[in-house]
Structure formats: C-alpha cells, structure tokens
Design goal:
Elements: E1 7-11, H1 16-24, E2 30-35, E3 41-42, H2 48-58, E4 62-65, H3 79-100, E5 104-109, H4 132-146, E6 151-156, E7 159-160, H5 167-177, E8 180-184, E9 188-189, E10 192-193, H6 194-208, E11 223-226, E12 233-234, H7 235-243, E13 251-255, H8 275-281, H9 288-302
Parallel strand pairs: 1-2, 1-4, 2-3, 4-5, 5-6, 6-11, 7-10, 8-13
Antiparallel strand pairs: 9-12
Length: about 300
C-alpha cells in the first residue's frame, strides 16, 4: 500500500454512525471493516485475543471505533457485556495502539454526565453517569486515555439517522400506527444526524493527516471534544418537528419522565458545549432543525 493511501480500520461499520463513516472517511484512506455483520474481517469484540490478532495482522494507520453496546435499558441487566464492549475492548485498542504506534479515534456519549445542569456541559466537567451504559462508556474513555495511545475522543448525543434503531425512525413508524402519542418533554438535548457527525469526524481527521499518509493528533492527543448539533430540544419538540415533515395525523402529548419509566435513568439535560471543537478544528454543526431537514430530504430522495 502506498503512503498516500493509509489503511483505516473501522469498528462498528454496520451501525448508524459507522455506516456513514465508511463513506466520509473513504477519501482519507483505504477503509477496512471489522465486526460480526458483513464485515471485511470477522471480529467478535467479546474475544480479546481476536482483536489482538487482527490488529497485529493488519497494522492499520488508524483505528476508528464507532462500535458500542448501546442498548441502554438492557445494559442494566447485562453489565458484564456492556463493560466488555464499551470499556475493556476500547482499552485493548488503546494498548495495541500504544504498542504499535496506531492512533485511535473513539466516539463517546453525553451519558457520562449526570444530566443535572443549568448550562451546556463542557469537556472538563465532572462525569457522574447514572446508568450502566453511561458508566461503561466513561470507563472506555478512561481506559483509552490511560493506555497512552495517541487518541482522540468525540462525545456526541441524541444521534439519529436513516438506518438502525433511533428516535427518528421510531417516530416515523409510530406516526403511521397511532393517532395519539405521549412523548417526554422534560429531557433536553441536541438531536444530531449521524451523517453530520461522520462528516465532522472526517474533517478533523483530514487536518490530522500528514503528507506521508500518517495520522497524528499532536497536541490534541488524549483530549475529549464535544460534537453535537446546535440548539436544543426536548424529545417532544423533536417529535413535533418530525411530525411537521410528514402527512400523518397524530396528536403528540407532552409527558414527564416519571410517566415513561425505563430501567435505565436518562440524563435530563444533555446539551454539550461544542466551542472547543470549533476552536481546535474549525468544525461546528448547524442547528438541529437544519440537520433534521437535510436527513428527511435525503430519505425522501432515496425512498428510505
């Protein structure tokens, strides 16, 4: 392989973010995928030895980890599996990266915070996750940073897209099935299209790619950056904005979190401050309503 076409090893290629990353990262190198579903290389992340063997065999120029155990409620009853995927495997990627000089780009979540705040969360605010999912994702961040590998962590929130399981697709389905829906109105975040996250990650990596086809995070290595759409909304407001783009006749009723109990606690306030990413890399996402409009336009154009 020429120096101009570095090998990028992508974990989580079949998820809503990984699917988009396969496209947006393509101009930066040769993408090879690892996972259990239709991947270039079969990899079960519960098998640490398999991860070690694969990375040593491929010796990629960059590892991008978009995989995660994201079943937030199920994680409460499957903590071992959640920690294995979200923490231990990430730590192993970091150790391999440190030993073999392979940078790691990793994605994390707003769930690392308590959700109790009166201003957007900054990267250095004290984490206090209230769920197994959040605790396991925080542990993954910590293990990656502690590994001393060259690494960059992008925290995002309220991710949706045209595939997989997410709030947008759930609402579009329910609008066709029900004439009245109760939607939580006291949790706030910034709905963020997975395509825009992937495009932003590619912009960041493009600035970290050297003329010799290597990726170097330099002074930003070991840092966490927030990456979400601008603005904020409740789940009810997000659902209302989606409904306005459809021809369905459905009444949305605002309800409180206690009226919609779940096994895992959800952060009540998940607005992330994106100023550091903009200052470091010049990357800032548009307002969440603009992102939603672009996503729905693509779905109409493609018949999704």
């Amino acid at each position: 392989m020429s120096e101009a076409s570095p090998l990028i090893l992508l974990f989580g290629h079949s998820g809503q973010l990984g699917w988009e990353l396969r496209r947006t990262l393509a101009p930066l190198g040769e993408i090879t995928t690892a996972g259990v579903d239709d991947a270039d290389h079969y990899l079960d992340l519960t098998d640490g030895d398999a991860l070690d063997v694969l990375v040593r065999q491929l010796r990629p120029a960059l590892m991008v980890n978009a995989t995660a155990y994201t079943a937030v409620d199920e994680a409460e009853s499957e903590p071992e599996l959640a920690y294995r995927i979200n923490a231990e495997a990430v730590g192993e990627m970091g150790k391999l990266g440190a030993e073999l000089d392979i940078p790691v780009l990793h994605f994390s979540t707003d769930y690392v915070f308590s959700g109790v705040a009166d201003r957007p969360w900054k990267e250095n605010d004290e984490p206090a996750p209230g769920s197994v999912y959040g605790k396991s994702k925080l542990a993954g961040e910590q293990e990656l940073i502690a590994s001393r590998a060259e690494n960059l962590i992008l925290r995002t929130a309220w991710v949706y897209g045209t595939r997989g399981k997410n709030f947008l697709l759930t609402m579009l389905r329910l609008f066709c099935e029900k004439d009245r829906l109760g939607v939580v109105s006291d949790q706030f975040g910034a709905p963020t299209w997975s395509r825009l996250i992937a495009e932003s990650a590619a912009q960041v990596l493009a600035q970290c790619k050297t003329s010799h086809g290597r990726f170097q995070f330099g002074k930003y290595s070991g840092q966490v950056f927030h990456l979400t759409a601008a603005g904020q909304a409740s789940w009810h407001e997000f659902a209302q904005a989606i409904l306005e783009q459809t021809a369905e006749d459905c009444v949305l009723e605002p309800i409180s979190t206690p009226q919609y109990p779940t096994p895992a606690a959800r952060p009540a306030y998940s607005i992330l401050d994106n100023d550091n990413l903009a200052a470091a890399f010049g990357v800032r996402l548009p307002h969440w309503r603009r992102g939603l409009a672009l996503c729905l336009e693509e779905m109409r154009d493609t018949g999704a």
